[in-house]
Amino acid sequence: MALHKPVIHPGCCRPNAVHDAHVGPGLMAAEQEYTAVVYSTTSGRVLYDIDLAGDPDWSAKINEEGDWSVPIPLRGGESTVRLHEWIIPYRYSVAIILGSTVCQAGPILPYDPSSNESTIAVKGKGFWELMNRRVLHNRLWDPSSKRITDSSADITFTDLLANIARQIVEQSTLWAFRPGSALPLDLPPYIAGGGPNVRTYHGYEMASAGQRLKELTQVDGGPDVYFQPYMTTVGGTRFVRHRMLIGQPFLVQPGVPLLFDYRSSLVSLGIQGGGTTPAITAFVKGTGNEAGQLYGYATATALTDAGWPALDMVDTNHTDAALQPTLDGWAAADVARYGVQPELWQATVKASYDPDISTYIPGHFANYSVKNHHWLPDGIYNWRIVGLSHSGSSDRNTVDHQLQAARSF
To answer: Is 134 in contact with 210 (CB distance < 8 Å)?
Structure first.
């Protein structure tokens, strides 16, 4: 269940299937421009196109909120009046668009304009942030007749982890007796067959749906979750919506992995050694204290067998958990994540080259063809794209890939 090293195919030649799919005339499309729109958080209806003072910053990752920032000029007059109309945290959201691809979208956060600056950086987070702002309870709980400590606010699921992730979000966007729960969201189909995983969420815990969803992704074998933003037009009106994508446990794309060529579509490949602290044994603290402390435990001896010293970690992110299998699952996931040689990879690729940014999302797998790199041997390296990002100060036509070795189950 450990992470494995990247798959390396010696030499720079690619298999024919991959070569045919990614090499040929018309490799580079025209450079794309960044745009941004304001939309209603609850309906997704686009209200305004944003006048940008420069390129935006954004990041999007699986199992996380992600964030965005757009620079807005302060010119006074009508443009500033309109800015005051929509820069209302959480009521309105912003979508960052490159060409026709929505890179990130989600609610505006509190802002802090300066009297000495002619621009303001409006910032926000991705859709997951809305789940962080909702207490998870049974959608049929009625606060006018029952306290949240009543059992009617509780939910128990026995199912596949992917289905439980779906139901956490469904329960939080279809409240029967509380207003304002609807969001512009497309839920995936329910996976038939069920599963053995049991989760009980009590209303009195008053934990957020976002927290419970993230905890589910962190157990051993937990599903990838990504809220993919996209633009659609209905009756001449533009809307921003979000697809909830759930892996089993990975999000995977059909066909062969994408291929990025070094010094062509792949601009650079950076490696940071020692970027994370390795752990061979994980203790995960649950509820309780002193001799009654519940905890999860997992260990892997591959590194000690190879000559490493014992290295422990204590995970204190789940101190309200009371189920032993769940605690052990988090411990196993910690060992799988940190029980490898700590090395972080980031690729910078050209957003308009084939494969362009519209053809992949966080969670997909990709091959990176490397030749004449000062640190890496020539070859094709297979990694999972766990995140995408762009800095407004960098080349507009590039996007950064945060990479991770694939788990083997």
So the answer is: yes
3-class state of residue 374 by DSSP: coil
Strand order in the sheet with 34-40: 46-49, 34-40, 92-98, 101-107
Q: Report the C-alpha gap between 15 and 264 in whole angstroms.
A: 18
DSSP one-letter code for 290? G
Cβ-count burial 282-313 (b if 16+ within 10 Å, e if not): bbbbbeeeeeeebbbebbbeebeeeeeeeeeb
DSSP line for 122-149? EEEE-THHHHHTSB---TT--TTTS-TT
- Which has the closest alpha carbon to 306: 280, 275, 331? 280
User: In this structure, is the dihedral angle defined by the CA atoms of residues 334, 336, 339 and 340, taken in order, positive or negative?
Assistant: negative
Quick: pLDDT tens for 61-95.
999 999 999 999 998 888 888 999 999 999 999 99
How many CB atoms are located within 10 Å of the residue 194 CB? 12
Q: In 77-154, at which residue ranges do the beta strands (DSSP E only) sit?
A: 92-98, 101-107, 119-125
Residue range 180-225, pLDDT digits in tens: 999 999 999 999 988 999 999 999 999 999 999 999 999 988 999 9
Q: Which residues lie below 8 Å from residue 261, measured CB to CB, with a gap of 6+?
A: 22, 23, 369
* DSSP letter, residue 357: G
Respond yes or no on whether the N-terminal peptide bond of residue 107 is cis (omega within 30° of 0): no
pTM of the model: 0.85
Q: Return the structure tokens found at 159.
A: 């199912």
Tell me the backbone φ, ψ of residue 45, rounded to 5 degrees: -65, 130
User: What whole-number distance in Å separates Cα of residue 231 and Cα of residue 242?
Assistant: 9
Give the H or E element holding residue 22.
Answer: helix 16-22
| Cβ atoms < 10 Å from Cβ of 250 | 16
